């Protein structure tokens, strides 16, 4: 029952999938439920994969790829892209820690946010259109799984950067190494289940990039926030696609 409640919580919070289910939840539930986000990623990837299979019978390969990325934004409500933009606006303002956190909380969108989101979406689209069509379906399914691994790694390996309350506090404070281990087991199991060619090699890269990203961001503000977790998620997806392309095209 706890598993089901927490999985539904993550689907409701991190996606726009209409799920009408109410239950008593605690602050702890948010952090503990992060262990299940690889499953949320699989749900998103499954929907995107089905859409892709339908689209390629009507549209070209490139048009199908861009529609899939638009669908991803719709399914997630752009929650992680928003975190990416806020993080880049703050961290690359080169201000004090306190000022960086203020900028990250500001609802206004700055130049760094726009550039970061555009760059990530362009990279995602370009890499997807360069990947062999025979692997495309499995690559799409695993795309959001790799991203959400970044959120677990980020929350479990960092502390909350703000002094008061915030959206990411319950995630970061209550997500421990135990949740990371559970999440990693689910992540590896999903990769093996989907069976992407050389997937056992590819799945290592999102783990490494997630650790490096959270360490880099945390050093800037002495911890992490909900926005930072979103940024790690989005960047991890792009690095995953880069790893897929590099590994599948390696001729050594």
Automatic annotation (TrEMBL):
Q: Which catalysed reactions does the entry list for this protein?
A: alpha-ribazole + adenosylcob(III)inamide-GDP = adenosylcob(III)alamin + GMP + H(+); alpha-ribazole 5'-phosphate + adenosylcob(III)inamide-GDP = adenosylcob(III)alamin 5'-phosphate + GMP + H(+)
Q: Which residues cross the membrane?
A: 33-59, 65-88, 109-127, 139-159, 171-194, 229-248
Biological source species = Clostridium felsineum
Cited NCBIfam families: cobS
Q: Which PANTHER family match?
A: ADENOSYLCOBINAMIDE-GDP RIBAZOLETRANSFERASE
Name recorded for this polypeptide: Adenosylcobinamide-GDP ribazoletransferase
Q: What high-level taxonomic lineage is stated for the organism?
A: Bacteria, Bacillati, Bacillota, Clostridia, Eubacteriales
* GO process annotations (BP): cobalamin biosynthetic process
Where mainly found? membrane
Q: In which pathway does it act?
A: Cofactor biosynthesis; adenosylcobalamin biosynthesis; adenosylcobalamin from cob(II)yrinate a,c-diamide: step 7/7
């Amino acid at each position: 029952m706890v598993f089901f409640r927490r999985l539904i919580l993550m689907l409701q919070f991190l996606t726009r999938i209409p799920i009408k289910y109410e239950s008593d939840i605690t602050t702890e539930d948010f952090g503990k439920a992060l262990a299940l986000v690889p499953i949320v990623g699989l749900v998103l990837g499954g929907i995107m994969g089905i859409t892709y299979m339908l689209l390629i019978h009507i549209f070209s390969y490139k048009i199908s790829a861009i529609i899939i990325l638009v669908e991803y934004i719709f399914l997630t409500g752009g929650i992680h892209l928003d975190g990416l933009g806020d993080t880049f606006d703050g961290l690359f303002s080169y201000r004090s820690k306190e000022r960086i956190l203020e900028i990250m909380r500001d609802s206004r969108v700055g130049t760094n946010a726009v550039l970061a989101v555009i760059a990530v979406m362009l990279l995602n689209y370009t890499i997807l259109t360069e990947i062999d069509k025979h692997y495309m379906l499995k690559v799409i399914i695993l795309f959001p799984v790799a991203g959400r691994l970044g959120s677990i790694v980020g929350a479990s390996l960092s502390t909350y950067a703000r002094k008061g309350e915030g959206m990411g506090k319950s995630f970061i404070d209550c997500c421990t190494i135990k949740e990371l281990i559970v999440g990693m087991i689910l992540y590896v199991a999903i990769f093996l289940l989907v069976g992407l060619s050389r997937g056992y090699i590819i799945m290592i890269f999102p783990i490494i990039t997630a650790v490096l990203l959270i360490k880099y961001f945390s050093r800037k503000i002495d911890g992490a926030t909900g926005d930072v977790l979103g940024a790690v998620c989005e960047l991890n997806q792009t690095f995953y696609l880069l790893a897929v392309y590099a590994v599948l095209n390696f001729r050594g």
